[in-house]
Amino acid sequence: MDRGKQGEPHPAVRSVTGRAPAYSGPVPALDPAAGDVLRPAQDTPTPAPAGAPAPVRTSGPLAGPSGPPAGVGSPAPPAAALRVRGLRKAYGPREVVRDLDLTAAAGRITAVLGPNGAGKTTTVECCEGLRRPDGGTVEVLGLDRAAPGAAARLRERVGVMLQDGGLPMAPRAGAVLDHVAALHTDPVDTGGLLARLGLTDVRGTPVRRLSGGQRQRLALAVAVAGRPELVFLDEPSAGLDPQSRLAVWDLLRELRAAGTSIVLTTHLMTEAEELADHVVVIDDGRVIAEGTPAELTGGSQVVVSPPPGTAPEDVRGALEALPGVEVAVAAGLVRVSVAGPLDAGALSAVTAALVAAGLGAAGVTVHRRTLEDTFLDLTGRRLREEDR
Ligand SMILES: Nc1ncnc2c1ncn2[C@@H]1O[C@H](COP(=O)(O)OP(=O)(O)OP(=O)(O)O)[C@@H](O)[C@H]1O
């Protein structure tokens, strides 16, 4: 799609220049030994409950900028890192974000989940200040994005990872990261960050010679190099191999533990389920559901294959009297939905009811509902299947 800004370097690295030799070495593996390099020196704090004020940022390597703690004489930190109300954005006559509300709690990971073209990137680009909304308000770290001077005041406090990386192509990977780090007052250790993301062996490689996955990880490193309080990540692990994806997820969890607020877009339900404290599902420019992954997926299913010669409706009849379940027949299978996690008691109640009715079953499987199921229920369509 046309990105408007595509091809331009990341705003933070536009002034990077440099010549670098061609890279011809092996593709580096992730360095498991680097796992602890960026961890906070002290015990990792547990994320605060939803709605709690922003956690106090500590002094570990990934912790937030140094400075006086909030308290008497300083403004209280906002409970929401991002608050979007009534956002609207059109490209020509086509409105792709429609009256969208979105709140991202401080110190939490908020995932904006939706299929291709849902409006995720447009929404975050409006929040990042890269696109001007047609309507609505965007409040970032308590500041109105549209207010005079807000962009300058937020530059040091907000990190951005664009979907296309937005990196300059000529300089070496390490030089790009070092340059960005040097623009900040309290940057992370860039060597440790490169190691953590499996990029040490390519730090001397020009960006243009990096693989797509390496560029993506470098873009993530650039986004977090200045210890931002809030970081926007557009599809941070799309297209990464499983090992790199896990390294990225670990880094994001560590950032959260250090108090960083994270807003990420994704079309990967596994990413949202694995990482997010709060998921905002959007489709066709609108929020269609939101909540914790558990709230959105809500429960489990026992799927019963009727024995040969038994009608699914008979099986349904035997099961629908069970308390606290909903029973449906689809594609010849009987689906028993149970609120919450499925325990042994609920499973044995299903099988006992089948035996009592003299029916038995050709097969019984347990299926935990996923965000994919939720999206399917809400829209009748699937999220993109690739990259799962
Ligand atoms: N600069 C642009 N000009 C015109 N149309 C655009 C532009 N950028 C995006 N669009 C269109 O707006 C709609 C929303 O795009 P957007 O990139 O925000 O969705 P998305 O949910 O991020 O999708 P993806 O997962 O593919 O990145 C799409 O139909 C897209 O083609």
The hetero molecules present are:
adenosine-5'-triphosphate
Number of domain units: 2
Low-confidence stretches: 1-61, 63-72
Radius of gyration over all CA atoms, rounded = 24 Å
Strand elements, count: 14
The amount of beta strand, in percent, is 15-25%
Q: What is the CA–CA distance across the termini? A: 22 Å
CATH superfamily of the largest domain: P-loop containing nucleotide triphosphate hydrolases
* Number of helical regions: 11
| Average residue pLDDT | 80
Helix content: 25-40%
Order of strands in the sheet with most strands: 6-7-8-3-9-10
CATH topology of the largest domain: Rossmann fold
The secondary structure category is alpha/beta
Quaternary organisation of the protein chains? single chain
Which CATH architecture of the largest domain? 3-Layer(aba) Sandwich
Q: What's the CATH class of the largest domain, please?
A: Alpha Beta
Shape: elongated
What's the SSE pattern?
EEEHEEHEHHHEHEHEEHEHEEHEH
Largest sheet: 6 strands, mixed
Can you describe this structure?
This protein is an alpha/beta fold and 388 residues long. The chain is 27% helix and 23% strand. It folds into 2 domains: 80-295, 3-Layer(aba) Sandwich (Rossmann fold); 299-368, Alpha-Beta Plaits, CATH 3.30.70. Strands 6-7-8-3-9-10 form a 6-stranded mixed beta sheet, with helices on both faces. A 4-stranded antiparallel beta sheet has the order 2-1-4-5, with helices on one face. Strand 1 (80-91) and strand 2 (94-105) form a beta hairpin. Helix 3 runs parallel beside helix 5 (212-224). Its main location: membrane. This is ABC-2 type transport system ATP-binding protein.
